[in-house]
Request: fold
Amino acid sequence: MIQRVGGDIKIYLYHFPAQSAVPFGIDLIGRLLKAYPGKVKGIKDSSGDFANTKSYADHYAKDGFEVFCGDDGALHSLLNAGGAGCITAAANVGSAVSAVVYANWNNASGAEAQVTLSAIRKAVVSAPLIPGLKALIARHTGNPAWQNMRPPHMRLGAEAQAKLYAAFDACGVSLRKAA
Reply:
């Protein structure tokens, strides 16, 4: 498949074994990088196993291979291991804090911001992800249309929303209401 990609397109791998059941191991990535120099640019690791994510960075980041984690709670550690960043749905409500971690990856401000970012992640995943994010955005924008769902997702019930809001608010982060 990669050999049929024309032009100067770059390919990012997505390691998500819970969905694909096909892992991207270190050896496979090495073979891809060797066989297709300049084409395979990086990977997002959604395995939930930081040791795995870090192994990608340890092996290939020094050569420009970009390693992204899918867990906001690992951002600071990954940046310190030479990783590129984090790609995550929770950034919908935590991107400002992620930016602080990213900008300060090598100092105490980044480590402190990571504590808040990890709390945001924990709050967000305390409810079903998509309905929870939509509920948070609806609350913070004042636009109830954000809670409209497409199957298979279901709107959070009042009790689940209240628990999510309490967990998120305990992080001390305020989302600005849209103008």
